[in-house]
Design a protein that fits this description.
Rossmann fold; six-stranded parallel β-sheet; globular; 40% helix; alpha/beta; 2 domains
């Protein structure tokens, strides 16, 4: 069976598809990841084959991002991002090459992440099903955004008929346990939850000259540095933890130069990127931005979190982590040292984080998703939940 995975760009969008793709490869299926050229490093780092589709012009995107930054509420920012960026510029740019790719490669099923919309039309064009894999912890209610208008224009411009059926009952796969979703969010009929394989623990270099102080992992994800939060937010976190009795490992992503942070305190080490699984086995607490990938990784490891949300779905994730007692939400890095101290000294945070980890461990293993893909490819329908 051939399975095409479709995504936009950024580690937070590529990452949720990776364990599903690896499970398909392990089961003997042929996979290919189609994404914007800028996503290639993330895909290739995962050891998966890559096919480039179109990417929006940076001049156009700079104008859109300027309006995102000028929006006065998170809701208005999210609306611009979903309606104009993902359902607009990204889908329109990707679709021509994606249509050509599917015509030649002929997948049996297409698996897409939440923000990738061009593959819906590509699947339709060759008459195969598409499956939605969540790249957010919170359930995205697409009715919160007017995605109909940009997608209707896309359909018209590329000669597709208007959408005539309701997609709300179609497959929705997620690696998030119910505990990390807001209790008032609906459980869609098509929801299926899975557990990714545990990350392989690896030894860390002794970057702290023999110190045995608790390790605090600090990461604001793969996109924050390139979206204007570097170096101020990173320097603020470093300053806050410089005098704390902890070792700090800070990752900044591959879009910026760590040297721009200047001279570092003795207890702080900076890397562009490290495998999160290698860190989680050694850390005692994490400071994050509330991104879905890093938050889920921390919870799967039973790791208490101090969350400094920056944009997108991060405030909702931060609120949820705090609500279940697995960490603390902060508005900026002010008070970060006190928050980290609380996470290290109050065992209740780790207890609640470990409860979420137990929920994740109880989910069906991800190889069950492969059977789901096989069934959907053969029948075109989602099997009834067990």
């Amino acid at each position: 069976m051939r399975i095409l995975f479709a995504t936009t760009r950024g580690a937070g969008h590529v990452g949720p598809l990776v364990p599903f793709a690896h499970a398909c490869v392990a089961a003997g299926h042929e996979v290919l990841v189609a994404a914007a050229p800028s996503a290639a490093p993330h895909v290739k780092r995962a050891g998966l084959p890559f096919a480039a589709v179109g990417e929006p012009d940076e001049t156009v995107m700079n104008e859109v991002w300027s309006r995102v930054r000028a929006a006065t509420t998170p809701e208005d920012q999210a609306r611009i991002v979903f309606e104009e960026v993902f359902a607009g510029e990204f889908a329109r740019s990707a679709l021509p090459k994606l249509l050509g790719l599917t015509d030649v490669w002929l997948p049996d099923v297409i698996v897409r992440e939440t923000c990738e919309f061009a593959s819906v039309l590509a699947a339709e064009s060759i008459g195969v099903p598409d499956v939605h894999v969540a790249c957010f912890l919170a359930v995205l209610n697409e009715h919160d955004f007017d995605l109909y208008a940009p997608l209707a224009r896309l359909r018209q411009d590329f000669g597709f008929p208007a959408l005539v059926h309701d997609r709300s009952q179609e497959p929705y796969l997620t690696l998030a346990p119910r505990a990390l979703e807001h209790p008032e969010f609906p459980e869609y009929a098509g929801t299926r939850r899975f557990r990714a394989p545990a990350a392989r623990a690896r030894p860390l270099p002794d970057w702290w000259n023999g110190s045995t102080d608790p390790l605090v992992y600090v990461s604001f994800g793969s996109a924050a540095a390139g979206n204007g939060y570097f170096p101020e937010t990173y320097l603020g976190a470093i300053d806050a933890l410089a005098d704390a009795p902890v070792r700090v490992l800070l990752t900044v992503g591959t879009e910026v130069d760590p040297a721009d942070l200047g001279e570092l305190p003795a207890n702080v080490h900076v890397e562009p990127w490290v495998p999160q699984g290698a860190v989680m086995a050694h850390a005692s607490a994490m400071v994050g931005h509330g991104g879905s990938g890093s938050t889920l990784a921390a919870m799967a490891a039973g790791m208490p979190l101090a969350v400094v949300p920056l944009f997108a779905d991060q405030p909702e994730n931060a609120d949820r982590v705090a609500a279940i007692g697995a960490g603390l939400r902060l508005d900026g890095v002010t008070g970060l040292a006190d928050a980290v101290t609380a996470l290290l000294e109050d065992p209740s945070y780790r207890t609640h984080a470990r409860a979420v980890a137990a929920d994740i461990a109880a989910l069906p293993p991800i190889d069950h998703a492969v059977r789901l893909f096989e069934h959907i490819a053969e029948t075109g329908i989602l099997p009834l939940a067990a």
